[in-house]
Each structure stands twice: as structure tokens, then as C-alpha cells.
Amino acid sequence: MAFGVKREELERWKARAARGEIAFLTHYWHEPRFKGVKTVTKVGCDDLDKLAGWCAANGLDPKHIHRRQPFPHYDLIGGKQKEVLMREGLWEQLERFKLL
After folding, report:
1. What are phi and psi of 29, to 5 degrees?
2. Which backbone phi and psi does 85 adopt, to 5 degrees?
3. 35-40 long-range Cβ contacts below 8 angstroms, 24+ apart
4. Whole-angstrom Cα distance, residue 65 to residue 15?
5. Which residues contact 31 (CB under 8 A, 6 or more apart)?
6. What is the full DSSP assignment across 63-84?
7. What number is the average pLDDT over the span 31-55?
8. Where are the alpha helices (DSSP H) in the chain?
9. What is the DSSP letter of 2?
């Protein structure tokens, strides 16, 4: 389940991903399989080749892309989530979700 994201943020993420941009959306998350993990960042892009390339460039295995239509995405969690958000300069998401 997702928490802490506004409809406007979700719509902006969807629009960017649909345009073939690499789009980031962080939200609170509860998934019993991942104990202690409280947030996830969805990295979305409608262009699967571009998203796969982004994954490879960031040391992530593209086979873990969720190939859901219309918004394919990769779920970032844990240390890699923080690392990527910092590298991308997404400080608002890091601060709001207390990832620093």
C-alpha cells in the first residue's frame, strides 16, 4: 500500500513517464516481505529500453523492472534508494521521507 503521495504528484509522475522521461516518485510503503523498509521510490519510464539502460547505468538488474502498462517502473528500496535519490539531486523526496 502507498501512503504520503498526493494525486498531483502521482499525475506528474505518470505524465513524465508517459513522455518517455525517467520519472521518480517516492512514497511511504508497507510490504510485510520487506521488514524495516518504510519507503519505495518508483522509477518509471514508458520507454522500456531507456528504463533498462538507466537500470544498468545505476548497477540495477533490468530483469526486475515491473513491466506493467501503462507505467513500467523499477522499485528502489533501502540503501540503493537513498544513493540514487542523492545522485539525482532529489533532496525534497529525501527530506520529506526522512531518508537522510
Report:
1. -155, 140
2. -60, -40
3. 37/77, 37/78, 38/97, 39/77, 39/81, 39/97, 39/99, 40/75, 40/76, 40/77, 40/81
4. 19
5. 37, 40
6. GG-B--SS--EEEE-HHHHHHH
7. 94
8. 7-18, 48-57, 78-87, 91-96
9. E
CA angle 16, 22, 28 (to 5 degrees): 85
> Distance of CA 69 to CAs 23, 26, 52, Å?
15, 19, 15
Grid coordinates in use for 58?
A: 545505476
- Spatial separation of the C-alpha atoms in residues 12 and 5, rounded to whole Å: 11
Q: Which residue, chain included where needed, has cell 533532496?
A: 91
* pTM, entire model: 0.91
**Confidence band of 2 (pLDDT split at 50, 70, 90):** low
**39 CB contacts (<8 Å, ≥6 apart)?**
26, 27, 28, 29, 77, 81, 97, 99
